[in-house]
Amino acid sequence: MDVTPEATASAEATASAPVLLPEPKRLGTLARLAPEPMKVVLNWGRRYSLWVFNFGLACCAIEFIAASMARHDFIRLGVIPFAPGPRQADLMVVSGTVTDKMAPAVKRLYEQMPEPKYVISFGACSNCGGPYWDSYSVTKGVDQIIPVDVYVPGCPPRPEALLQGILKLQEKIARESLHERYGTSRPSAAALQSGLVKPPATEGNAG
User: Fold this and answer.
1) What number is the average pLDDT over the span 35-62?
2) Is 125 a known ligand-binding residue?
């Protein structure tokens, strides 16, 4: 077979051209195609099976413990307290003063939680810094580092306030559409083609 320089150059250009990845399938496709009764069942199952990861940082954590005891018993609402870790949790309850030193740990544990995940900011300190808002070492609200779904005010809030916050979160989950929540958050094919892995050089370096 006669190999011309033009054919060789064309083959090399084809080999070095980037391979276009297909557009990733979005989570919202199934949510759109599923019938409405199925969406209701899925949301019903998620709202009444919330495994809680309690991130207690100060005195508000005592009120969280009180809400989980026999008098208030938020397990009857479908909330399971004290998940083994963030990878088994659906809901993070941040209770107490978030300092700048603790903020990276809060964000790291939130990122370890599987989707869909939710956050309740419990108490004035977690909401906006509380009485320590002007301190040099206090984060002005946990929403500065992670998204928050429900804010529970108080210093400290009563256990009944946490129960009300959980009910508000469950109402939000019941109305939720997975397509609206995650349909536009997936990376595109262009974003996946990063320069982290470089192709091998065409000519070796002569040492």
Assistant:
1) 77
2) yes
